[in-house]
Amino acid sequence: xxxxxxxxxxxxxxxxxxxxxxxxxxxxxxxxxxxxxxxxxxxxxxxxxxxxxxxxxxxxxxxxxxxxxxxxxxxxxxxxxxxxxxxxxxxxxxxxxxxxxxxxxxxxxxxxxxxxxxxxxxxxxxxxxxxxxxxxxxxxxxxxxxxxxxxxxxxxxxxxxxxxxxxxxxxxxxxxxxxxxxxxxxxxxxxxxxxxxxxxxxxxxxxxxx
Length: 210
Fold this sequence. Notes:
It is built from eight helices and nine strands. A hairpin with a 2-residue loop joins strand 5 (about 120-125) and strand 6 (about 130-135). The radius of gyration is 19 Å and the shape is globular. Helix 2 (about 30-45) crosses helix 4 (about 75-85) and helix 2 (about 30-45) crosses helix 6. The protein has one domain (about 10-165, about 175-185). It has helices at about 10-25, 30-45, 50-60, 75-85, 85-90, 105-120, 175-185, 195-200, and strands at about 5-10, 75, 95, 100, 120-125, 130-135, 135-140, 155-160, 170-175. The N and C termini lie far apart (about 45 Å).
């Protein structure tokens, strides 16, 4: 009997596209959905479970303005956007302290791009771990959380790490349950076909065009 695979191999382009649609399907506005997809793709390129982290974040109760309650932990997607806006201050040596956050590693997506643009190392640290982003790769310390909120979050400038993992141009293996969850959310962005839409020219049509 053939064992059923619990993982799937996807390219970085597929990860980015599906994560964008999944974030939109979960209710994120375009700007935050693009932030989420970018972070998931960048983390995946560095060997981290970017798609799984995003799937867990979108499924979790969080306070982000588009889903959740005010008394819930902050959303890593929304916090990533705030860090993006403060990259200049962080690079100048003014750390940014963040609230307890679900999907905190997604914030590293903004720091990865910031490190490349600024030509310096930037770090996201929390109680129990850290992700240091250098212009040419990452150094991770401790466990990488997903759907559980983490505390002690700080985005800061730091010394260059002694060793980093460079990004890989290929795709990565993703947990099938997480990928299916993203696919389900992405499907919400599809508009159901109706008689009116077909009459207006949507879909392949009924005419034989050979």
